[in-house]
Design brief:
single chain
């Protein structure tokens, strides 16, 4: 029970960290778009494109990691419930 609780807490912690990273990447992307005039106009659009691609990949990576952590937490929760049911059945027997 302790191991499954620890794995659930780790999964929830990972989900929270990934959510914070996604928010940070979104904010950076928004700030980059809002401050396009600071990049020198048309000449530096390639740099803007590189930043856009990198931040887009960061968001996709965070989304995938969040889904994996969510499924890990869900699986640990189900495993913990199954162990509790088995313990209650053993007590009744």
């Amino acid at each position: 029970m302790l191991v499954s609780s620890i794995s659930r807490f780790n999964a929830v912690n990972t989900m929270n960290n990934i959510t914070a990273e996604s928010i940070q990447a979104s904010n950076t992307l928004g700030n980059t778009i809002n401050n396009t005039h600071t990049f020198g106009g048309e000449h530096d659009l390639s740099m803007l494109n590189k930043m856009d691609n990198k931040l887009g990949l960061d968001l996709l990576t965070n989304k995938l990691l969040f889904k994996m952590a969510y499924l890990q937490e869900k699986m640990a929760s189900k495993h913990q419930q199954n162990n509790e049911i088995k313990k209650s059945l053993n007590v009744l027997a």
